[in-house]
């Protein structure tokens, strides 16, 4: 059976890069922002402090975070400098920018342009757990540190801890986690990213590392869980191709049927997905 999904031309990144995934990213944005109390980032700087400032969205996807930021800046009467989103390909970029200030461009977050050194007041990055190995995470953090303004530049990284969720042994969720951990291991990815990211930020040279954690319900029995559950369900379905290729599960049909059982477990057990926002600052020297 041939996959109908389309992917980035990079083996490391497990999720698709097609119209369905692009649409899901907009749903994911609503879910994550709502979970963090409507905030686009949890630490400094303030929205008003972005007057004349440059902002980078690393791994921008369809640019939805930048679009939301631009709207909020306009509503707050704040005129930023440049708002830039980068990704490893332009597959998910909108055909026309919905707003005037944001620029989306192809760039490698493991090797950002040298001329960006010390440029940005804020760097945002969200949910690259399925795209970076441990070594790549450390390279990425070094690059983000370099492009931030010394002393005042801040980073915000949002990641999920669901790949380390302690499902009951033998349950559908437990089976899925074993499948995905094998899939991640095959690509050198880090499933327990929340346990590592704080230390890696400090090792990279960041200071004032802080973590804000939220629990996002996924049960369709809860009013606040239906949309989130749909987002995470679709996101995890997007990993089926990688799971089959890794040998962690026999077929895409087996994976889909497993996901159906997992979603029923989310409903029955009122399962939540742990998300964490890591904020940190580049020191003066």
TrEMBL record:
InterPro entries: Methyltransf_25, SAM-dependent_MTases_sf. Residues 55-151 form the Methyltransferase domain. Gene3D superfamilies: Vaccinia Virus protein VP39. This is Methyltransferase domain-containing protein. It comes from Acaromyces ingoldii.
């Amino acid at each position: 059976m041939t996959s109908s999904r389309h992917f980035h031309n990079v083996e490391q990144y497990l999720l698709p890069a097609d119209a369905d995934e692009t649409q899901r990213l907009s749903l994911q944005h609503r879910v994550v922002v709502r979970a963090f109390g409507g905030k686009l980032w949890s630490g400094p700087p303030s929205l008003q402090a972005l007057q004349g400032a440059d902002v980078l969205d690393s791994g921008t996807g369809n640019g939805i975070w930048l679009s939301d930021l631009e709207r909020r800046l306009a509503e707050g009467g704040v005129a930023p400098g440049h708002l830039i989103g980068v990704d490893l390909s332009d597959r998910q970029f909108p055909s026309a920018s919905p707003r005037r200030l944001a620029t989306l461009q192809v760039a490698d977050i493991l090797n950002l342009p040298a001329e960006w050194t010390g440029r940005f007041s804020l760097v945002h990055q969200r949910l690259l757990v399925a795209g970076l190995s441990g070594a790549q995470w450390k390279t990425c953090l070094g690059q983000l540190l370099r492009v931030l303004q010394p002393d005042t530049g801040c980073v915000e990284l949002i990641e999920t801890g669901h790949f380390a969720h302690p499902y009951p042994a033998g349950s559908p969720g437990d089976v899925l986690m074993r499948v995905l951990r094998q899939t991640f291991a095959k690509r050198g990815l880090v499933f327990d990213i929340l346990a590592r990211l704080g230390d890696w930020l400090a090792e990279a040279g960041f200071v004032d590392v802080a973590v804000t954690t939220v629990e996002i319900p996924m049960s369709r029995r809860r009013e606040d869980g239906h949309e989130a559950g749909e987002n995470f369900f679709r996101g995890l379905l997007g990993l089926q191709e990688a799971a089959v290729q890794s040998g962690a599960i026999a077929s895409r049909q087996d994976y889909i049927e497993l996901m159906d059982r997992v979603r029923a477990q989310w409903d029955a057990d009122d399962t939540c997905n742990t998300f964490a926002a890591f904020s940190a600052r580049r020191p003066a020297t």
